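Example 433.
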Amino acid sequence: MAIKLYDYSLSGSCYKVRLLLGFLDLEYERHPIGFYPEREHRTETFRAINPLGQIPVLEDDGIRLRDAQAILCHLANKYDMSGLWLPRAPELYGLVMMWLMFAGGELMAASAARLHDLLGYDLDIETARRNAHAAFRILDDHLTRREIEGGTWIVGDHPTIADVACFPYTALSNDGGIGLEDYPALRNWLRSFMHLPKFDAMSGISEFA
Amino acid sequence: MAERPDRWIGVALDRQIKPGSSNPAIVGGNAIAVWRAEKGPANVWEDRCPHRGMRLSFGFVRDGMLRCIYHGWGYELGGHCASIPAHPDLAPPKTICANVYRSEERYGIIWTNLSESPNAPLPDAGPDQGWQSIRSVYVARQVAAVKGGLASFDWGGGRVEEIGEGAALVNAGGLSLLIAIQPVDESKTGLHVVAKGEGAKDAKARLAWASRLERLRGSIEAQS
Ligand SMILES: N[C@@H](CCC(=O)N[C@@H](CS)C(=O)NCC(=O)O)C(=O)O
Ligand code: FES
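Predicted structure in complex with glutathione:
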């Protein structure tokens, strides 16, 4: 049965899923959600699909999943025969999970800032930007240590779903008025990611790096 | 108004400005693009495309040229516009030129002097060879507070000595740290740190120094 993604092209969270589908060469059916200005994700019809009223949602063989990070785990676990995107080695697995949680947690402050600037969401933009900077600093400190060790990716020697989950809102930070001047290692990691084979850009991210 | 005094300011570690990349930085309130062609030294330009003012730090490098992300105008080393994709047959007028600042690579650090008539010498930290990069840190405090923090920090027995306005040397147990001090704006300062000596050769030791610099940042920011 085909994979189906409830998707919105400008959503960074949906972009996480589209990126991995691309890296894994998976065919899927795209079900576009009128996120803005229609707010289709808040309708009763969509809440029957995801009671949280959020995208992305993925359906695969009778399983329905919400949350980009959970979806990345599902796709890598089921379809990535190389095991590289979701390494099972004990010294890597927990770290990948840890940075996935960070992508769905602290880093989402950058998403909030972007929703404010791009779609006029009513939220405390100063707090969102401050929290996004705090998260970027943590990721940049980590990537700085990885650089000193001779590594490029968040965990291990190959990009993982942790990189996929952290990439979109970092790369889209400028949409939320957040500059990357203070994060050299993070900028270099973004550029390496954009040079991956099968990397696909989205609106707000340059296809050139 | 952003100031452009005649002095050399470290803006990045050489190793972190990758070949074929353009990077943003702010120096005394001036936005700059620090970019490097596929090979060769780093360049420091005003972060502003002469066409419509887009930031050149968002640009990308192709065939030795920095290309603006907006309409793709391409600028050669030296700043001249050499390519306008919308008019491939037109030789761009020589007057279209990005604003180029002086830049130098020394001690593993990229330095710039934004002054219109730069005469000041680079900070003198001895021979150029043998410096290893540790890391850059950005501290959410102005320069004076950061210099105070450098002086009072526990360097493990090391002494801090300023060399000119824009740099400091720390000597700690057979190892020298050179710290370039970048005034970003009224509320932020960048530190670009390289090390030389036996204790800087292996990655473990450099990791330990990187952690120590995170503690330095934390200790300065903890002061009100
Ligand atoms: N935890 C979810 C959050 C996804 C998310 O924030 N999606 C946004 C679109 S990018 C959304 O649907 N927001 C609707 C809302 O919360 O009102 C995930 O990681 O997938
Ligand atoms: S603004 Fe740079 S090319 Fe148009």
